[in-house]
Specification:
The chain has 336 residues and is α+β, with helices and mostly antiparallel strands. The chain contains 11 helices and 11 strands.
Length: 336
């Protein structure tokens, strides 16, 4: 179903906020989630805009998420901030821990934030953009569910395991990328399945481990990493750094926890940031050319400003969507 509907960004935000609150989510959580969904839709990344609303509702109804959870912030070491999300969503946990992360990075030169015991279903780029808005360089990563086969494998071992980076630039939008270590975000495969569209070879395998262009068969089988062994290595690193290293779940453990309930992954996140300099601000003034399948609807700040004026056009099928996965986004601009 390819029909589009037109909504203002205020309508997108109101729809996401209402969907969360009428299903029992606390106001702080609901606003954090609505803000992120609106940004995804504003940036025309349909797999991480309104398409995420029903997975949020579904996870609430699974009973695995605490919709009223209040994050707890502590320090593991002078440069390490830990937030226990208390089985709530990661977005409020990040907002709660971000001020201390920024303070420590400015004081010590580098700092890390780890979020444990959380559910996360949204893109990472809004999180590193929040770090860049403070004039800091940000890096974030998280495991997910074991949907992705390592290079040469036939069964899911890794999550889509996204990695996001933001570099602030004076007088310009930050240089930002956010991509899954899988060949594509899982949400994009689910969108293809809902619309009855084939997917390119290289995105995934069927249940027998054979390369497939059937989106539904791949959802029943396993996704593939990007770049062969290179994507596998990055996925493994993220499993270790944002899972085992901080004492939380790997993607395989997260999938077992889910138990088929279809809830969003219980998982951990790690973010690091460093102060930038005026010389650093002048760097990265290029615009990357080309993207391949890891790029998710690459927006520009100009397009985002246009969406604020004229609204957005999400697929009408987003009203019935149910998805989870990680974003792929890579853009920058050289104009002020």
């Amino acid at each position: 179903m390819n029909d589009l509907i037109n909504l203002s960004l205020d309508q997108v935000h109101a729809l996401a906020l209402r969907a969360a609150t009428v299903n029992g989510m606390g106001e702080d959580h609901a606003r954090a989630i609505a803000d992120t969904i609106t940004r995804g839709q504003r940036d025309e990344c349909h797999s991480h805009g309104l398409y995420r609303v029903l997975v949020c509702v579904h996870s609430l109804r699974s009973g695995k998420v605490d919709p009223q959870a209040q994050p707890r912030v502590s320090r593991l070491a002078p440069a390490i901030v830990r937030v226990d999300a208390q089985r709530g969503y990661s977005l409020l946990a990040l907002q709660t821990g971000l001020p201390l992360l920024v303070e420590q990075a400015r004081e010590l030169g580098v700092a890390a934030l780890v979020i444990r015991n959380c559910f996360h279903f949204s893109a990472l780029w809004p999180e590193v953009e929040a770090i860049a808005a403070e004039g800091l360089v940000g890096l974030a990563m998280t495991p997910s569910h074991a949907w992705v086969a390592p290079e040469g494998g036939r069964q899911g071992v890794f999550g889509t395991n996204p990695l996001a980076f933001a570099w602030p630039r004076e007088g310009r939008e930050p240089f930002v990328f956010d991509f899954a270590t899988s060949a594509i975000a899982r949400g994009d495969i689910e969108l293809h399945a809902r619309q009855g569209k084939p997917i390119p070879l290289g995105w995934g395998l069927d249940a027998e481990g054979r390369p497939s262009t059937d989106a539904r068969a791949v959802l029943e089988g396993a996704m593939q990493t990007f770049g062969g062994h290179k994507g596998s290595a990055l996925a493994a690193m993220i499993e270790l750094m944002a899972g085992a290293l901080i004492g939380d779940l790997t993607s395989a453990e997260s999938l077992a926890f889910d138990g088929g309930a279809g809830a969003t992954p219980l998982r951990s996140m790690a973010s690091c940031c460093w102060p930038s300099t005026r010389r650093a601000f002048s760097a990265a003034s290029w615009r990357p050319a080309g993207s391949g399948p890891r790029r998710c609807s690459p927006p520009s700040p100009t397009r985002a400003r246009g969406c604020r004026r004229s609204g957005v056009s999400p697929p009408a099928s987003a009203a019935n969507a149910k998805a989870s996965g990680s974003a792929g986004r890579y853009w920058t601009t050289s104009s002020a």
